[in-house]
Amino acid sequence: MAANTHDVIMLFGDSITQGGWVPGGFAQRLAADYVRKLDVINRGLSGYQTNWAIPMFEKIFAVQHQQLHVPKVQLLTIWFGANDAAPLPNRQHVPRDQYKENLKHLVNMVRSSTSPYYSPCTRIILITPPPVNSHQREDRDFDATKSYAEVVREVGTTLHVPVADVWTAMWDASGQDERALEEFLYDGLHLNEAGYEVTYNLIMNIIAEKYPEMHYDRLEMVFPPYWANVKVEQGNAALAQ
């Protein structure tokens, strides 16, 4: 598959997405895999929950799809829930039912042919919030976050969108011991390199199984892949073709 010069992978989420550029982070690893094939754009918004994310997504996605000569989003990851699940009176809290509707709305903004943001070329992956370690992070509740992860799985099933189930993968990898989650969470909420590796592996498994045409091994490099093949005798104009 030949990629458009300007096409991108967009990562949309909260601080866990924003932090994906750290060494070993899932954004950093995807960017390395897709270098000269697809650009990786990190649109993580630290502290945001889905109520606040929707108007931001309208602005972000409009830039990508409502102007000429702007990169198209070939793959979109949506990763919220860690803040939505914050217990009251935290102003980040979003009720579970509203969180579900917000996730559906974000997906349908891209999927629905009646949406002004309709993008039939965009593949979507939903990501569950990771489990929290309330022994490290007292402002979060383990069972509440588990419940919000269940919502992501439900929305994925209802809308036929693949889900990277970080919650289950990390919980199982920890031996289902909340204290052992510190292997993956540096502060009980945010991921360290080991946590991002779990996420990255889940995303790549989904790409391989559900969107195989998007796997980096199936994409051609943009511009001549080998410098010796550049036909300099044809002039600089040939390089732009």
Can you describe this structure in just a few lines?
The chain is α/β, with parallel strands linked by helices and 241 residues long. It contains 8 helices and 5 strands; from the N terminus they run E-H-H-E-H-E-H-E-H-E-H-H-H.
Topology:
Layout: E1 8-13, H1 15-18, H2 26-33, E2 39-44, H3 50-65, E3 73-79, H4 96-111, E4 123-127, H5 142-159, E5 163-164, H6 166-173, H7 193-210, H8 236-239
Parallel strand pairs: 1-2, 1-3, 3-4, 4-5
InterPro entries: Iah1-like, Lipase_GDSL_AS, SGNH_hydro, SGNH_hydro_sf
Protein name: SGNH hydrolase-type esterase domain-containing protein
Domain SGNH hydrolase-type esterase: 11-198
Task: Kindly list the characteristics that best describe this protein.
241 residues; Rossmann fold; 8 helices; 38% helix; 11% strand; globular; Iah1-like; lipase activity
Q: Overview of this structure, please?
A:
The mean pLDDT is about 90. With about 240 residues, the protein is an alpha/beta fold. Helix content is about 40%, strand content about 10%. Strand 3 (about 75-80), helix 4 and strand 4 (about 125) form a beta-alpha-beta unit. It has helices spanning about 15-20, 25-35, 50-65, 95-110, 140-160, 165-175, 195-210, 235-240, and strands spanning about 10-15, 40-45, 75-80, 125, 165. The protein has a five-stranded parallel β-sheet, sandwiched between helices. Helix 2 crosses helix 7 and helix 3 runs parallel beside helix 4 (about 95-110). It has a single domain (about 10-240), classed as SGNH hydrolase (Rossmann fold, 3-Layer(aba) Sandwich), CATH 3.40.50. GO terms for molecular function: lipase activity. InterPro entries: Iah1-like (IPR045136), Lipase_GDSL_AS (IPR008265), SGNH_hydro (IPR013830), SGNH_hydro_sf (IPR036514). One of its GO terms (biological process) is lipid metabolic process. It comes from Pisolithus microcarpus 441. This is SGNH hydrolase-type esterase domain-containing protein.
